[in-house]
Specification:
Blueprint lengths: L1 E3 L8 E2 L2 E2 L1 E6 L4 E6 L5 E5 L5 H18 E7 L5 E7 L4 E4 L6 H17 L4
Antiparallel strand pairs: 1-4, 2-3, 4-5, 5-6, 6-9, 7-8, 8-9
Length: 122
C-alpha cells in the first residue's frame, strides 16, 4: 500500500500536470513513478530506503538521463516487452510496465526521455 509523501510535492509539478509521483509504502520505502502527458505510467522505480537517495536519483535523471543511465530492453515470461533503467554502476533503478510490442516499448523509452527532459525542476 502506498501513500503520498508530501515533502516531494515540489517534484510533481509541471504545467499543472503531475509528471513524477513519489510514494511511501507501508514498510517506509520510497518509490517514484514517471508519467506521460496523458497520465500513463511510463516507469516505476525500485524501493529506496532514504529520501536523500531518491532525491539524488531523480536529480541525476534530470541532469542527463542518457549519460548517467542506460536502458536494458527485455522480454518477460509472457512474451511482453519492457525496459529496465540502470545507473552507471549497473544497478536497476526501475522498470516500465509491459508492452505488447517492441515498437511500443521503444516509444515508451522515447516518451520517458521526453517527459524527463521537459519537466521543470526546482
Amino acid at each position: 500500500m502506498f501513500s503520498w509523501v508530501s515533502c516531494f510535492s515540489y517534484l510533481m509539478e509541471m504545467s499543472q500536470e503531475k509528471k513524477i509521483e513519489v510514494l511511501k509504502d507501508d514498510t517506509n520505502h520510497y518509490r517514484f513513478q514517471l508519467k506521460s502527458n496523458t497520465g500513463n505510467t511510463l516507469f516505476q522505480s525500485i524501493p529506496f530506503d532514504k529520501e536523500g537517495d531518491i532525491q539524488k536519483t531523480v536529480g541525476l535523471l534530470h541532469q542527463d538521463i542518457q549519460r548517467h543511465f542506460r536502458f536494458e530492453r527485455k522480454t518477460n515470461y509472457a512474451g511482453k516487452f519492457q525496459f529496465h533503467l540502470k545507473n552507471n554502476s549497473g544497478e536497476t533503478i526501475g522498470q516500465s510496465n509491459p508492452y505488447t510490442s517492441e515498437a511500443g516499448m521503444e516509444n515508451g523509452i522515447k516518451n520517458l526521455i521526453k517527459s524527463i527532459t521537459e519537466t521543470k525542476w526546482p
